[in-house]
Amino acid sequence: MSQKFQEVINSERPVLIDFFATWCQPCKVQASVLTKVKENIGESARIMMLDVDQYPDIAAQIGVRGVPTLTVFKNGELLYKQSGVHDVNTLTDLLKQFSESI
What we know:
The structure is a single chain. By secondary structure, the protein is α+β, with helices and mostly antiparallel strands. It is 43% helix and 25% strand. The protein is built from 4 helices and 4 strands. Strands 2-1-3-4 form a 4-stranded mixed sheet, with helices on one face. The chain is globular and about 30 Å long. This is Thioredoxin.
């Protein structure tokens, strides 16, 4: 795993990572949902996107089998991993839950 990725997931703030592909239509839907989630959670958590075609090694190490797959890391620990499109409320609540345990 790249050093930059390790630095990101070792954050004390929860980090939601959207594993996506540019050719994936559901991934485009998920990206628009994440924009609204970011507005809801502000600075309490971080959201980033990782293209599985550009970083296949990282996706393989995390065990990503399909896109979109969302993961949440905090202090280097994988707290959540689920494939498929998620709605705004589910993700907002999930990140708030993980950020409250700082």
